[in-house]
Amino acid sequence: MKNIKNILLLILALCITAISFSKEENTDAIYNTLVKEYTLNPDGTVEFHLRKEVKLLTHFAFHRLFGETFIIYDTTSQSLKINEAYTIMADGKKVTAPSNAFNKVLPGFAANIPAFNHLREMVVTHTGLEVGSTIVLDYTLTTKGSFLPYLMGNELIGENVPVRAMQVIVNVPAGAKLNHKMLNLRTAPETGKDGKFDVYTWKFTGLKATPQESYIDQASLPRLIFSTAKDLDQAIAAIAAQPAFRHETGADFAKRIDQVSSENKEDLKKMLALQDLVISEVKLADVPLQYTGYKVRTAAECWQSANATVLEKAVMLADALSRVNINAIPVVLLPASQFDPALGDPLQFEQFVVQVNPREMGRFYLSVTRKNEQNLIYSLEGLTVVPLNGAADKLVTFKEDGMKENGISLTGDLSIADTALIKGSLTMELEGYKNPALKIYGNADAVKTYLSGNLGPSSVVTYETKKTNPEGTETKFQVEKKKPLVKTGGYYFLDLPVLNNGIAQYHLDASSDTREAPLKLGGDIEEEYTYTITLPDGWTLLNPKTRLTLSNEAGKLDLELQQKKNTVVFSKNLKVNERIEAKDYREFLELIRTFGDERYSRLVLVPAK
User: Fold this and answer.
1) What is the mean pLDDT of each run of 10 residues along the chain (609 residues)?
2) I want to staple 337 with a disulfide (CB 3.0 to 4.6 A). Which of 219, 244, 393, 543 is the partner?
3) Which domains does the chain possess?
4) 364-366 and 351-357 strand pairing
5) How far apart are CA 517 and CA 519, in angstroms?
């Protein structure tokens, strides 16, 4: 009996090993251990300690993924200590990283920006790498208390490869309050004491690789947020109390603002012209704010240096608009799932725009990195808007509903006189965030650029924009194209006209059939095409008569195609939701693949005999 028991235990052990090996075969590498430890010392200094042990399972892992580690820091306020750096080769041999494996360089985003030339990127080159080897790196980054306003963290739980064991440890002085929030995981911290510190420890095991898919809904990923700030109000106040938020434009920037303003009379024209000024004449210093210590230079300083971070550009644009008596303020956008007034963590602050309240129209939101095609208010559903207002007595927020109708449609009455010519009219309607009202406002001919396919911009003979405002645009085109048909054998093919800002712009129809993470588009979409096409006498539509409706959790598709005497009647209407759960992804693909199927976008015609 004892022998049988031993044999069973051996078989079980072999099975576990086989399963583990099988799992490893499906990934390039695996973290055996990942530890991230934060410590707030009584003197205000902050220590970040990281230890990782990564086993490499493919050549790709060390040629592309893990051959080097990059550590960015501020040399004036932070010090870096490499505690250990070595590799355990497949045969167990230890290879310690030589001195020339550590090289300091200027981070790419700080190039040609003198204000940030004190930043450095430590490039740790791992040596002795081979399939089956394990990289070990352990380092500590110490930050002066004056650099960051408080201890804070915003940790994505997981890596681009599986993680066997991960810990996030936060040490704060005994009695200090740590506000924290775990998103999309039911994991609470273990709490304890270590001398004069209160210790919070989050432990994770068996983490899958973070999905590397397009259009991931970031709000769906597991994330740990924490901060020693009292609340979000205090976090905002610490940033907005800086001189940069006191409208210090300086004489030179003020002169340029006045010049641009004098050339434009209407509020909207002034807004767009000043937006263009900040975007075009001030280089974007694409430096993440955690590397600046959340310090913000004044608009005058940024103008003199000819560069600015995203937040600094938001301050500059708000200052410029305020100078010409248009109420404006920089704001930060937070996903609703992450917004918590009790949690002040500036590491969440990534999206900055300017909220504008002009006299002639309702509230506007302007980008500071690209020219708006539309008021961003239609793209803010699901986000919380937090003004960076140092003058506010308490936290102020806005929740914009966006616009439910985010539709595009093209209706046509076309005629094929013979194989050499097609002509007729097309009516285009654009709504919500799909409506490029501001782009059209600045260039009326821009309406033509949204036509594509067989009847693109070059086919437009005349056009009339009957309506254009932030809610919607309607344009009627007279179109004409010579030799529109493609002849193959005895058949003629006609590709139907489409709009280029529909679902096809996401290029998802060729994606994998499965998905791990929820998919998020820019908003709900409704895309509709309706055509009546008059054929020459005796011509026949070879496409089968179709009347189809598909409806599922991802949306709905209605499609009709038939010939009535010498007229082809065609319509298709697609409605898809902004957010598609992973379990509904196949159904979503069925909708968009059917919608884009050549059978329902290309007519096959047989001429009269």
Assistant:
1) 47 43 70 98 97 97 95 97 98 97 97 95 97 98 94 96 98 97 95 96 97 91 96 93 94 97 92 96 96 96 97 98 95 90 92 90 92 91 88 77 79 91 96 92 93 93 92 95 91 95 88 90 92 95 96 96 96 95 95 94 92
2) 219
3) 25-228 (2.60.40.3140), 236-399 (3.10.620.30), 407-606 (2.60.120.1130)
4) antiparallel
5) 6
